[in-house]
Amino acid sequence: MIRFCVFGAFLLYLVASPVSAGFYPNGSAIPPDLRRNITDNAWNAFLNFTGCHAGMKVDGLYKIKQYFQHFGYIPLTLPGNFTDDFDDILKSAVEMYQRNFKLNITGELDELTLQHVVIPRCGVPDVVNGTSTMLSGGGRRRTYEVSFSGRSQRFHAVKRYSFFPGEPRWPERRRNLTYAFDPRNALTEEVKSVFSRAFVRWAEVIPLTFRRVESFSTSDISIGFYTGEHGDREPFDGFMGTLAHAFSPPNGHFHLDGAENWIVSGEGGDGFLTERAAVDLESVAVHEIGHLLGLGHSSVQDSIMFPTITTGRRKVDLHSDDVEGVQYLYGSNPNFNGSRTPTPATEQRDTGSGNSGAAGRIDGYSSVLTSLLMSTVGLLMYIL
Ligand SMILES: [Zn+2]
Ligand SMILES: [Zn+2]
Questions:
Q1: Which residues surround ligand 1, an ion (CB under 5 A)?
Q2: Which positions are annotated as binding Zn(2+) 1 (predicted)?
Q3: How many Å lie between the centroid of ligand 1 and the Cα of residue 128?
Q4: Active-site pick, 108, 282, 288, 324
Q5: 297 alpha carbon – ligand 1 mean position (Å)
Q6: What DSSP character marks residue 59?
Q7: CA–CA dist 147, 156 (Å, integer)
Q8: Which ligand approaches the C-alpha of residue 134 most closely?
Q9: Which residues of the chain are in CATH 1.10.101.10 domains?
Q10: 302-309 — which CB contacts under 8 Å span 24+ positions?
């Protein structure tokens, strides 16, 4: 049985300190002086460990142990003052990581493994208290095989969706959820509409609705862009690295890294794809909403709930793995006919008001946690 941290509700008192977050219709709209190279990603330094294996001692190796601990591959119970030795702890962490990402299980920091490690990703851990949420074990229905009957073919699929420990979900009486944006981010309507499109993708398959409201303090789901430490002891790490994180039900907190260059147009043309140092906002939003609903990470690479996202790539359509997982928690939307036709983002775009297509930067905020109160049984805070 997985044991996990249960926190009470967090009372966050946010102290504003302006930072900036960039939103752009496409990669080429990023001003030249703000364009970043993908190699600016702090994790890229891990590539220097290529070829490291058990028994070696390499300067700075402790940093990759911290990385693996952050994502659950090294238990949080171990103190974080790691040595630079490639010890058994690191070896088993590497092996578990390779298993989750379907890499050759070598136990070494080989080239392919490290190329995966440096890909920007969701901040939610893949492993909780030593049990992977991405593969079988630790919970029922984590992994099974199912056959689908297609129109003209029959194929076999392996289900890899997962849930948070205890399978938390929004209760029956809360099927019409509200969401609001941190008013201090002063987001444009265009940016907000990206999130509404992302919510629709989930609402199409389950009997839940999502309605935008103005009250940030009372909404079920609260969305904000922050940098660095921002009140939940899960500081963002600047450009690339961790892109966002969200908490399991019924917490509702959804945080995004204000240091990224976010693409909001919902289009993924060639020009965008070549701008690899920018991230498609809707792709990340769809993923994090999956966490808000109770889904953990999946080892199916094409699923929305796969932990990493290749910069420059747009991935917004729910995979059958995502649909099966979320319908296990909530049942099916009566109007869902079992298949989704990928819809061009422009057809769902909120045309409400202003700033369409404009590149721009907004004021964001960093914040600090000043109190931790209000213990509430059953509220699971999930640190990604
Ligand atoms: Zn995630
Ligand atoms: Zn956070």
A1: 122, 124
A2: 230, 232, 245, 255
A3: 13
A4: 288
A5: 6
A6: T
A7: 5
A8: 1
A9: 42-119
A10: 303/160, 303/161, 305/161, 305/162, 307/71, 307/121, 307/122, 307/124, 307/126, 307/134, 308/116, 308/119, 308/120, 308/121, 308/122, 309/119, 309/120, 309/121, 309/122, 309/243, 309/279, 309/280, 309/283, 309/284
The annotation status of 40 as a binding-site residue, yes or no, is no
**Was domain 42-119 assigned CATH 1.10.101.10?**
yes
**Confidence at residue 276, expressed as pLDDT on a 0 to 100 scale:** 62
**Alpha-carbon torsion 101, 105, 107, 109, what sign?**
negative
Question: In this structure, what are the phi and psi dihedrals at residue 178, rounded to the nearest 5 degrees?
Answer: -110, 155
Cis bond upstream, residue 25 (ω within 30): no
Residue 229 is among the residues annotated as catalytic for this protein: no
Task: Kindly give the parts of the chain with pLDDT less than 50.
Answer: 1-19, 136-157, 269-273, 343-384
Are 309 and 279 within 8 A, CB to CB?
Answer: yes
In this predicted model, what pLDDT tens digit does every residue of 162-207 receive, in sequence order? Answer: 899 899 999 999 999 999 999 999 999 999 999 999 999 999 999 9
Residue type, 270: D
Q: Does residue 141 contact residue 329 with C-beta atoms inside 8 Å?
A: no
Tell me if 298 sits within 8 A of 282, measured CB to CB: no
Between CA 181 and CA 183 the distance in angstroms is: 6
Q: How far is the CA of 383 from the centre of ligand 2 (A)?
A: 8
Which uninterrupted H or E stretch holds 330?
A: helix 320-330
Q: Please report, as a single letter, which amino acid is at residue 251.
A: N
| 369, two tokens | 């946690």
- DSSP character string of 159-209: E---B-TT-----TT--EEEEEE-GGG---HHHHHHHHHHHHHHHTTSS-E
Question: What's the CATH number for 19-38+167-365?
Answer: 3.40.390.10
65 close to 74: Cβ distance less than 8 angstroms: yes
pLDDT at 345: 43
